[in-house]
Amino acid sequence: MSEKKLVEEEVNFQKNDAFSLTMIPGAFARKMRTCVIWQFIRFLVINIKMIIVVGKSH
Amino acid sequence: MARLVVLGGGVAGHTTATFAAKWLGSQHEVVVVTPNAKWNWIPSNIWVGVGQMTKEEVTFDLAPVYAKAGITYHQAKAVSINPEGKEDSDKPFVTIEYTSADKAGQTETIEYDYLVNATGPKLNFGATPGLGEGSQLGEHTVSVCTADHAVHASEKLQEAIEKMKAGTRQKFLIGTGHGMCTCQGAAFEYIFNIEHELKKAGVREMADIKWISNESFLGDFGMGGLHMKVGGYVVSSKLFAESLFAERDVEWMIGAHVSKVDAGKIEYELLDGTTGEEEFDFAMLIPPFAGVGLKAYNKAGEDITDTVFAPNGFMKVDANYNAGAYENWKASDWPRTYQNPTYKNMFAAGIAFAPPHIISKPMSSPNGTPINPTPPRTGMPSGIIGKAVAHSVCDLMTKGEDAKLHEASMAEMGAACVASAGKGIFNGTAAAMTVYPVVPDFEKYPGTGRDTDYTFGEIGLAGHWIKHILHHLFIYKAKLNPGWTLIPE
What confidence tens digit (pLDDT) does each residue in B48-70 have? Predict the structure, then answer.
């Protein structure tokens, strides 16, 4: 008898045909979204990019 | 002394008036005509709509701010424009109707030397039967378009949450309420805030959440979608958006024109021509936008509204309105100076200008119903256009009629969109997106139409923090607090 393997982020693929045709982030990608150190770095990067876009727009 | 009259006090009008007042000083007069007593930072209405902010946190009184800036302020709505004056005077003027409690309904004329139309949109709820009457929201759905609407939406959301806690399953339907809507971004942000709040309240399992939109694909956002660099790939916003929806277990229905709204039920038509019904317990459907219905008259008093305004009620500017079929569309079709081609002392800024055409690929059902997003021109583009127009008008007033006009084409400017879910500092996330330029330029950027170094999107706390900062920064700027001119639009 096979054992059920539950991977949390993969459950939604089965809920809807459209869901199964896209990508869903895994545990590592989701963890990085709320990792304060990584997000602080991204905060700096996004801000720099946004400032450049603002500068190019004026 | 010359007089600049600005119609509207939203992002574009407020930016135009405040910069013009600063640059012109006391040498010239700046007049603002706006029906609202309060300024509203509309992006944060989303947080009001889920009960995470109060109306007071996203609005402030305009009168003291304009008094500080030396701006003459009329709480009134513009009714008509007479750009040639009247029989006994060549001086152009606008007719206004007061909305303030003390003078409600009274009309008055205001002469001008220069006019900036920044009236924003009419929230055209009446375009869909059952969604509302004219610009008034109906009884079956909620909206987050104004702070008052958002307060009402929050109350209805709390009622739904209580029902779920009592064991009654609820269906949430969020999106656009007509085939010709814009502002998908606001609905996009609202649906994920709803999802976040339901999770927080411990009732997510009791809710079915569905997105309904006039976009032909998820992630169109009224801009024909966008491409961004992610993980070494250049990917479509379709994949980005679908991933977000699938991750949060939010179903979607796209290419949909909502044709009728009833209590607890909508009727819709899809791009393939099929029709259907969808039930709901809670629905937030964005209405289509139209011009506010300003009329225009010539010197003899004849109606020249068709000369000044496009059929959708937005003011004609220096755009190419004869671009023809989609295959012929170019970035250069989009206006650069926002000057009215007939009356050179009139400009339009923000949503009030008539775009040359939509940005997304035009679509219609086999029945001939157009179902495609109209172009977004809120937020950052509105502010940038407002400032450029202020610059132009100030130069015309101080340097003469031959002064060079300032330019701000949406095909050469970017926009930032931060759709945040949740409001806590560490327990919310946001989809932060930047697009450059807003209108794709396939001649300059073959392939995607945009610069993929500056067109990007990612999800995380960082964007969420930026959303918080933008909220405080733009309200600080709009209040004209010290250093306000240093904060970019």
Answer: 999 999 999 999 999 999 999 99
* Contact assessment for residue B12 and residue B18, using Cβ atoms and an 8 Å cutoff: no
**Which positions in chain A have a beta carbon within 8 angstroms of at least one beta carbon in chain B?**
9, 12-13, 15-16, 18-19, 21-25, 32-34, 36, 38-40, 42-43, 46-47, 49-54, 56-58
Q: Are B219 and B433 in contact (CB under 8 A)?
A: no
pLDDT at B276 over 70: yes
Residue B252: pLDDT over 90: yes
Enumerate residues 6+ apart whose C-beta is below 8 A from B316.
B307, B308, B309, B310, B340, B341, B342, B348, B354
Q: Which of B450, B456, B451, B401 is nearest to B434 (CA)?
A: B456
Percentages helix, strand, coil for chain B (3-state, rounded to 5) are 30, 25, 45
Residue-wise pLDDT tens digits, B161-200: 999 999 999 999 999 999 999 889 899 999 999 999 999 9
Distance of CA B239 to the CA centre of its chain: 25
> Which ranges of chain A does DSSP label H, i.e. alpha helix?
27-34, 36-57
Measure CB to CB from residue A24 to each of B243, B413, B416 and give the nearest one: B243
H or E segment and range at residue B14: helix B11-24
Using an 8 Å Cβ cutoff, are B5 and B91 in contact?
no
Handedness of CA B89, B92, B96, B102 (dihedral sign): negative
- B343: CATH: 3.50.50.100
List residues bridging with B3 in a β-sheet: B29
Instruction: Give chain B's domain count.
Output: 1
Averaged pLDDT, B255-273:
98
ipTM of the modeled complex:
0.92
- For B42, the domain range is 3-123+289-399
Query: Is the separation of the CB atoms in B259 and B277 below 8 Å?
Result: no
**Residue among B245, B244, B42, B223 at smallest CA distance from B150:** B42
Distance, CA of B105 to CA of B119 (rounded, Å): 18
Per-residue model confidence (pLDDT) at position A1:
58
Residue B436 lies in a domain: no
In angstroms, the CA B292 to CA B411 distance is 25
A22, A33, A40 member nearest B246 (Cβ): A22
**Residue of B270, B217, B258, B223 whose CA lies nearest to B241:** B217
> In this structure, are residues B135 and B244 in contact, taking their beta carbons and an 8 Å threshold?
no
Cβ burial of B346 (10 Å; 0-12, 13-18, 19+) is buried
Distances (CA, A) of B26 to B20, B257, B354, B361, B389: 11, 51, 32, 48, 19
Indicate which of A7, A24, A40, A57 best probes the interface with B, i.e. most B CBs within 10 Å of its own CB: A57
Is residue B423 predicted with pLDDT exceeding 90? no
